[in-house]
Amino acid sequence: MPVIDIHAHYGTMPYSLERQTPQQIADLAKAFGIERTCLSSSVAIAVDMVAGNQQLAEAIQGNAALLGYVVVNPNSPEESVEEMRKYLTSPNFVGAKMHATHHGQPLDSPETMQIVKSLLRYDKPLLVHVPDSKGLVELETLAKAYASCPIILANMGNGDWPLALHIAKRATNLMLDVGGADPAADRIKHAVEQVGAHRLLFGTNTPLVHPLYALGMVRDAEIPAFDKERILHRNAAKLLRLA
């Protein structure tokens, strides 16, 4: 079964497993049957948005196994809009990424709303990392304000995944990345039961989490094989318009 990883990182992170070149990322993914990996720049997230996005664009150029998210930051809304204009017309950039833990802005702030409104013109999803339950509540406001924008919650909200499922029932444009390092063995089963397998996506959070861990969580989940195939491949292929 081919696999699409919708949540991985490129570039040095102080707590990652190791530094990786683009080819090493692609080779590691291939070893576990992951045919496409969607990356955001850790440099763009934590240090320099413009420089990091440029580094990622250069890293994935010409490698069909690697796709990109353009990182945006509500502390710099105009610059974020320009970054989306620069990259989101390219077929190897599949969406935008916002990491609220790093930028510190509320996810329902006017600046965040401005960025998401501009994202609508590209008809591509927003991948969001939230730091806590407060961020999840803000994310619900954002999702409902822009109901036509697909929003992916990174790592299913981590330890706050029960609240994330509750919110996803009310915000139907919210999709859930089932990756991350939360050890709750039954969270994927609960997600399928509460919001449906059609709204779940596979992400590894590589290189912070080894892909084998994320794959094991899905493959060991007590859900039908067809739902596993949806999570590992079909849903992402449809959302990102991948052949």
State the main characteristics.
243 residues; alpha/beta; TIM Barrel; 8-stranded parallel sheet; 11 helices; 44% helix
What is this entry, summarized?
With 243 residues, the chain is α/β, with parallel strands linked by helices.
Task: Explain the overall architecture.
With 243 residues, the protein is of the alpha/beta class. It has 11 helices and 8 strands. It has a single domain, classed as Metal-dependent hydrolases (TIM Barrel, Alpha-Beta Barrel), CATH 3.20.20.140. It has an 8-stranded parallel β-sheet with strand order 1-2-3-4-5-6-7-8. Helix 3 runs parallel beside helix 4 and helix 4 packs parallel to helix 6. It is globular.
Topology:
Layout: E1 3-10, H1 22-31, E2 34-41, H2 42-46, H3 49-60, E3 66-71, H4 77-87, E4 93-99, H5 100-103, H6 110-119, E5 126-129, H7 133-145, E6 151-153, H8 161-170, E7 174-177, H9 187-195, E8 200-201, H10 211-219, H11 225-239
Parallel strand pairs: 1-2, 2-3, 3-4, 4-5, 5-6, 6-7, 7-8
Helix pairs in contact: 3-4, 4-6, 7-8, 8-9
Total of helices: 11
The backbone outline, from C-alpha atoms, is globular
Indicate the CATH class.
Alpha Beta
Order of helices and strands: EHEHHEHEHHEHEHEHEHH
The CATH architecture is Alpha-Beta Barrel
Main sheet: strands, sense, barrel: 8 strands, parallel
| Average pLDDT over all residues | 93
Helical percentage:
40-55%
Tell me the count of domains.
1
CATH superfamily: Metal-dependent hydrolases
